Amino acid sequence: MMNILSALPRRPRLFNDESLASYIYRLAIANSFETTISLYRLANLTENTVFTRTNHSQNFNKSLRPLCILSGKSETQLSSTIYNDDIPEYVLPIRKTKICPKCFADNPYGRKDWDILLNTICPVHQCLLLDHCPECKILISWYRKSMDKCRCGFNFCRAITPTVNKEETIFSVIVCDKYHPSLFQNQLLPGFFYTSSLSIIIDFIIFLIGQHINHSFGNKNLWGKGSLRGIRNSIIHTHLMELCDILKSLPHGIWEWTCSINMNLYYDKQRISDFHYRFFPYDISHFINDKGKIDINNIERFIYKMLIEGDRFSPITYT
Predict the structure, then answer these.
(1) Could you tell me the CA-to-CA distances from 101 to 40, 126, 159, 168 in Å, in that order?
(2) How many CA atoms lie within 13 A of 31 on its CB side?
(3) Torsion sign (Cα): 195, 189, 296, 264
(4) Which of 40, 103, 173, 260 is most solvent-facing, going by the fewest CB within 10 Å?
(5) How many whole angstroms separate alpha carbon 215 and alpha carbon 40?
(6) What is the DSSP string of 43-101?
(7) How do residues 36-58 score in pLDDT, each as one tens digit?
(8) Is the per-residue pLDDT at 312 higher than 50?
(9) pTM here?
C-alpha cells in the first residue's frame, strides 16, 4: 500500500504543539475528504491507533509512515504529535476532545496537552477547558464538519468558560511542565509531584481520586479504566481541587482523609467483578491484610510510601 501512495495536494502546516487527531482532521478537511475515517483508512490507521495508542511511540512511529507520505511530513515531525511512555494510555481520550475557546480564537487547532485527562485547565488563559458544546450540550468530538464549530453550528470561539485562580492550575502545570518548563510555578504540593516521573505521578493521582470518589459516593460509583474517559472535565477538575486541599495539609490531611473512609463501601457483593477496579491502576494485593481484608492501614502506608520514595517505589499495577 505504501508504494502506491503519493502526497496529497494540500498539506497544511503542522503546529509544534498540535495533536495527531487535530492534524489528521485538518489534513482531511483541506483535501475534501468526506470524513476523517476515509483518511485513516488511506493512511492504514485506525481510530484506536490515533486516539489511544499514542503512548507507544516506538511502535507507533512505524505505523505513521503512510501518513508521512500523504502529508509530506517527516516521521520526526509527526512523532511530535504523540506522547511517549510517560503518558498512560488510560488518561487519553477516545474520539472526544477538549478545547480552550480563547486559544481557538487565536488559532483553531487541537493542542496535544488538552488530550490528557488530568489537564483540566488551559495554563495560558487560566480557564477551564471545554469538553461539550454550550448550545446542544453534546461532547466535543472530531466528528464535526468544521474545526471551530460544533455539529449544531455553534462557534466554539464564542464559548465562555470559567476562569480559575492560579492555584487551580497546579495539576495542569505539573502535567504540562514536562513539555513547557516556562509554566512551572511555586511548589504547592509535596515534592513527589515535582521530582517523580510523569507516569508515576499520573498513576498516583488517579488512584487517590478513585479512593476519594469511592468513599464519597459509595457503591453507586464505578471507578476504573473504562469509566475514566466518560467523566466530564469539570467533574475531574473538582476532584483534583479537593485532592489538592488534602495533599497541602500533610501529614494531618492524609490521616484525616483515610480515617474518614467507610471500609464497607469497598465491599459490594452485587458488583464483585468491579472490586479490583476500586484501586485502579494499582493491583489490589497492596491493600489486603493477612486475613484477606482491605486494610485502611495498608492504604495509608501505601500513600506515604509513594510520597516519600517516588520513583524508587515500583508498585504492581492492575493488569
Answers:
(1) 27, 12, 6, 18
(2) 19
(3) negative
(4) 260
(5) 42
(6) TT--HHHHHH-TT-HHHHHHHTHHHHHHHT--HHHHHTTS--TTS-GGGS-SSB--B-H
(7) 888 988 988 877 666 655 444 55
(8) yes
(9) 0.86
Residue the block writes with cell 466518560: 230
pLDDT of residue 183: 45
**Residue type (1 letter), 162:** P
Q: Measured between alpha carbons, how far is 4 from 44 in angstroms, rounded to an integer? A: 13
Q: Contact, 199 vs 88, CB < 8 A?
A: yes
Strand partners, 163: 127
Within 13 Å of residue 126, how many CA atoms lie on the same side as its CB? Answer: 9
CB 200 within 8 A of CB 83: no
- Kindly report the number of other CB atoms within 10 A of residue 42's CB atom: 17
The Cβ of residue 278 has, within 10 Å, a number of other Cβ atoms equal to 24
Instruction: Estimate the crossing angle of helix 252-259 against helix 233-248, to 10 degrees.
Output: 120
Name, in order, each residue with C-beta under 8 angstroms of 42's C-beta and a sequence gap of 6 or more: 5, 66, 70
Cell of 244: 489538592
Cell representation of residue 119: 489537564
Phi first, then psi: give them for residue 9, nearest 5 degrees.
-65, -35
Domain regions of the chain by residue span: 2-85, 101-178, 192-312
Between 227 and 162, whose confidence is greater?
A: 162
Cell of 13: 502546516
What phi, psi does 152 have (nearest 5°)? Answer: -80, -5
Q: Is the pLDDT confidence value at 223 over 70? A: no
Q: Are 116 and 17 in contact (CB under 8 A)?
A: no
Mean pLDDT confidence for 105-132: 92
Position 218 pLDDT exceeds 90: no
Number of C-alpha atoms within 13 angstroms, CB side, residue 74?
Answer: 3
Q: Cα(148)–Cα(150) distance, rounded to whole angstroms?
A: 7
How far apart CA 40 and CA 93 sit, in angstroms, is 17
By the 8 A CB rule, do 266 and 129 touch? no
